[in-house]
Amino acid sequence: MPTTGQAWSLLRDEVAGAARQLAHEGLLVGTAGNVSARSGDAVAVTASGVTLAGCRPEDVTVVSMAGSVLEGELRPTSELSLHLGVYADTAAAAVVHTHAPYSTAVACVLDELPVLHYQQLLLGGAVRVAPYATFGTAQLAAGVRDALTGRQAALMGNHGSVAVGATLAAAVDNALLLEWLAALHHRASALGTPRVLTEAEQTAVIEAAMSRGYGTPQPNQDQDQDNEENA
Fold it and tell me: What is the pTM of this model?
């Protein structure tokens, strides 16, 4: 059983790795954006002013749910209230805030990202755009928290995006999916007026996914039969 210090060390390493991955994917540029993960009553979050492509464990600060620094030498991100607010609202274990190019572009134009592709249902449906507010403010945090209700991601008006997840890996995947969906909307709009999936079509996808175990590894039935015959 790891000690508190060991657990925090591991969490800081995981957050730093996620920040580097997102920077490599082009979702984090320079010091813009932040990543956090929660373990119990502790949250490891990227520090303010850190170049995220080279983020190291020591560039990640551990804070309490009240925002008090528990471990680390650097001041946490200016968006700390947003991260802590999401954890207070939900069961999320990680929060990723990016300035991804397509997601940010959509957040400068639309009031929500409609469902063009069924994979968007993994995020909960149409992705809402929170009203613009100055970075690091309580107003911004409150707007994003509202936009995240019932969703795994939200857009921030004229700012960027936020994705959450039951694990840090899931939050990263949701951020990547949101950027792909935003890019899809951009390309579809360049060709004409995008066709949006109706509520009935979305419901049918959900029902089909539930009945078929979509997204869950399935055994190869033919291979199982061959193994039985050869036994």
Answer: 0.90
